[in-house]
Amino acid sequence: MNYFLFLNHPKGKEVYKVSKEREEMLKEHFSRVDILETEVVMRGIKYKALVDYSAFSNLANFDCFKCQDPCCADNPTVYEKITRDFVLENIESYNKKTKNIDILLESGYEVEDIIKSIKEDECMVPNETVEAEISLCTCSFKPNNESVLCSLHSICLEKNMSAKEIVEKKPLVCSLWPIDIISEEDKSLLYITVPDDFTTGFTIEDYYDTPCINKELAQSSSFRRKNPIGFLEDEYVPIILAYGETLKYSLGEKFYNDVKEKLVEENLIFVEELIIKEKQIFKK
Ligand code: SF4
Ligand code: SF4
After folding, report:
1. 76 CA from centroid of ligand 2 (Å)
2. Which superkingdom heads the taxonomic lineage of this protein's source (predicted)?
3. Does residue 60 surpass a pLDDT of 70?
4. Which residues, 6+ apart, have CB-to-CB distance to 20 below 8 Å?
């Protein structure tokens, strides 16, 4: 089995392969909890999926502007053409935020090499500079030497782009993070869940380190000393609402509607909550 969203990770199998032990934990979990069978559509391709739907009623607050625990620590994927074209179309804003072009010019690269690199190299900078020059994801930036933000997402917001457009321009793994999708080797079936107390043993991300889906962590004194303003208790809402638009455009309307209806049917979320408009994609 593989961590589906990491299949295009620059480090390959070392990252995306699920160990036998984790595979067994996942199978055990999915045999024990209530499951929804549905269909997802990602980048135009349909997949059959089993969804651990109750996890989508877990509370989340994606308060990225105020988060001091950046999750953009690694290049998550070999970038798609749509992202490369977007960077080239917005090269000035991209450089103003990330300084990637300036850094490479100062390191002796020619402009033509830098453009070629954005078009062809896995992480949009020359391969030999990925670890040496930039320890965070090459698209990340620090607006104030504190928070770490995504330059792609920020440029989209500056251009007043819709949630659908944001999801199209950013890597899918980033839009959906930290939702976990694990696939059978041949992709004939996907298993979809969220890191929490029950799944964190087999999900690729660690629930206990992730404030946006762990309200208790976000309220702890040690965490609040680093994040005194953000992560207000009242701003935690069920993931299906916090990530409503993201889920709709990343995994398809059918997935979103099926999970939402199931959660309402089982009183895991309430109809009144559905009037909360999805805003959190515009907070990143
Ligand atoms: S997604 Fe979560 S961990 Fe990452 S920056 Fe946003 S709030 Fe912080
Ligand atoms: S959200 Fe943006 S900055 Fe963060 S890992 Fe993804 S592409 Fe990089």
Report:
1. 7
2. Bacteria
3. yes
4. none
